[in-house]
């Protein structure tokens, strides 16, 4: 029994049939099913029948993939820096557990996506090798510093490979921390490369095309539809992951995406004004205040308990996800007033996906304003948290900054667009 044989494996009453693949551990068999998925099977007590030998030349296929990904320097091509932080786009399957695990560095991404060859000259760099739920402000700072260094070294654009779960937070952080003269494009994958429906190739290719464009902003590039046709380009401070697993999970909230990349024609199109390449001087302000929290108000919250918790937390800033126009229970307002009196900046956002905070309509809202709450307009709650972390460390009046747009996070008007 060798890799490349077609086998039937029975274990614990379950039968799997497919092509035997190389395994990362001697304790497990790896079988590629006819549908394209790989399964890991514990060798213990497994009954294996070889149906046909050498139906697939695994070694030659691996060699072909490697040679197809060779990148040669071309003076006529722009230079794009690929920065890896981990995530599904840079992941493989751990057949010990059957789960997806981050293992690839940026060089591996080039080998895994040979379609990137010939589009640019590439530099690879690893900042972290984590799943994005493990990202921290320290990772954001390291990432921002790496992007700055790559641009200083001559990169014409930067693509950040990132896990999708917290990509919107990292993109927001870099939007505030970095003034960039070139595009910085975040991309990821909702489905890992071993799945036939993986979106990793198209997202990576479209991200590189966006990194070669004239839009010198922090962008998120992901599938615009469930089909393999167009990737949307979202402004880093206006994007939100709105589905757990769909390939078109990311949306620009309150507006259309800033632009798009046509996968087939490779055309990059923009719908609205953007910062153009070369307009800004490269600069980095990486400091973040870690004593900022995001609190979602819900009916039935224990005001006394949360009041004590907030007081003991010794926060510098608090972002509240209020109901509707930006409201909380009336009994919570004195708690907020005490926080403001203690020097905490308290900013109000809304749980609603569209529209903006306006605390001048109802009594509760006016009482909140009297308590010192700052309205954050239509800034997304997660973005507002990152913004306040940055503003507290870099601006003289962080409360005032929450009321105006710094990086496209706060729109002047909330109008229907769909």
TrEMBL record:
The active site is at 88, 164, 165, 241. It is an enzyme of class 6 (ligase). Heterodimer of GatD and GatE. One of its GO terms (biological process) is regulation of translational fidelity. Keywords: ATP-binding, Ligase, Nucleotide-binding, Protein biosynthesis, Transferase. Residues 80-273 form the L-asparaginase N-terminal domain. One of its GO terms (molecular function) is glutaminyl-tRNA synthase (glutamine-hydrolyzing) activity. The keyword Metal-binding does not apply. This is Glutamyl-tRNA(Gln) amidotransferase subunit D. PANTHER family: 60 KDA LYSOPHOSPHOLIPASE (PTHR11707:SF28), L-ASPARAGINASE (PTHR11707). It comes from the Archaea. InterPro entries: AsnA_fam (IPR006033), Asp/glu_Ase-like_sf (IPR036152), Asparaginase/glutaminase-like (IPR006034), Asparaginase/glutaminase_AS1 (IPR020827), Asparaginase/glutaminase_AS2 (IPR027475), Asparaginase_C (IPR040919), GatD (IPR011878), GatD_N (IPR040918). The keyword Transferase applies. Allows the formation of correctly charged Gln-tRNA(Gln) through the transamidation of misacylated Glu-tRNA(Gln) in organisms which lack glutaminyl-tRNA synthetase. The reaction takes place in the presence of glutamine and ATP through an activated gamma-phospho-Glu-tRNA(Gln). The GatDE system is specific for glutamate and does not act on aspartate. Residues 1-51 form the GatD N-terminal domain. Belongs to the asparaginase 1 family. GatD subfamily. SUPFAM superfamilies: GatD N-terminal domain-like, Glutaminase/Asparaginase. Its EC number is 6.3.5.-. Residues 291-400 form the Asparaginase/glutaminase C-terminal domain. It comes from Halopelagius longus. SMART domains: Asparaginase. It catalyses: L-glutamyl-tRNA(Gln) + L-glutamine + ATP + H2O = L-glutaminyl-tRNA(Gln) + L-glutamate + ADP + phosphate + H(+).
């Amino acid at each position: 029994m060798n890799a490349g044989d077609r086998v039937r494996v029975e274990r614990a009453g379950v039968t799997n049939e497919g092509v035997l693949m190389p395994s990362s551990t001697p304790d497990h068999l790896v079988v590629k099913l006819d549908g394209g998925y790989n399964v890991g099977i514990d060798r213990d007590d497994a009954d294996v029948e070889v149906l046909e030998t050498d139906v697939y030349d695994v070694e030659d296929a691996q060699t072909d993939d490697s040679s197809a990904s060779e990148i040669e320097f071309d003076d006529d091509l722009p230079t794009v820096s690929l920065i890896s932080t981990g995530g599904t786009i840079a992941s493989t399957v751990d057949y010990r557990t059957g789960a997806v695990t981050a293992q690839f560095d940026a060089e591996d991404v080039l080998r895994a996506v040979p379609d990137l060859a010939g589009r640019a000259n590439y530099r690879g760099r690893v900042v972290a090798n984590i799943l994005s739920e493990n990202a921290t402000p320290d990772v954001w700072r390291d990432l921002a510093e790496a992007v700055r260094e790559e641009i200083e070294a001559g990169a014409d654009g930067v693509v950040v490979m990132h896990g999708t779960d917290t990509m919107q937070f990292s993109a927001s952080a870099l939007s505030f921390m970095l003034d960039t003269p070139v595009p910085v494009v975040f991309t990821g994958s909702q489905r890992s490369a071993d799945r036939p429906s993986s979106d990793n190739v198209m997202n990576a290719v479209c991200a590189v095309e966006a990194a070669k464009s004239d839009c010198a902003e922090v962008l998120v590039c992901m599938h615009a539809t469930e089909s393999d046709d167009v990737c949307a380009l979202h402004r880093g401070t206006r994007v939100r992951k709105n589905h757990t697993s769909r390939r078109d999970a990311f949306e620009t909230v309150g507006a259309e995406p800033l632009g798009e990349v046509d996968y087939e024609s490779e055309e990059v199109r923009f719908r609205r004004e953007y910062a153009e390449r070369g307009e800004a001087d490269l600069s980095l302000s990486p400091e973040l205040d870690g004593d900022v929290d995001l609190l979602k108000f819900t009916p039935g919250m224990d005001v006394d308990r949360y009041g004590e918790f907030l007081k003991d937390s010794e926060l510098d800033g608090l972002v509240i996800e209020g109901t509707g126009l930006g409201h909380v229970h009336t009994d919570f307002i004195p708690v907020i007033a005490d926080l403001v009196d203690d020097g905490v900046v308290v900013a109000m956002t809304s749980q609603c996906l569209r529209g903006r905070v306006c605390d001048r309509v109802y009594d509760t809202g006016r009482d909140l304003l009297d308590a010192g709450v700052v309205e954050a307009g239509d800034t997304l709650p997660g973005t507002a948290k990152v913004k306040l972390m940055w503003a507290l460390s870099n601006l003289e009046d962080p409360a005032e900054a929450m009321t105006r747009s710094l990086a496209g996070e706060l729109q002047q008007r909330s109008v229907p667009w769909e």
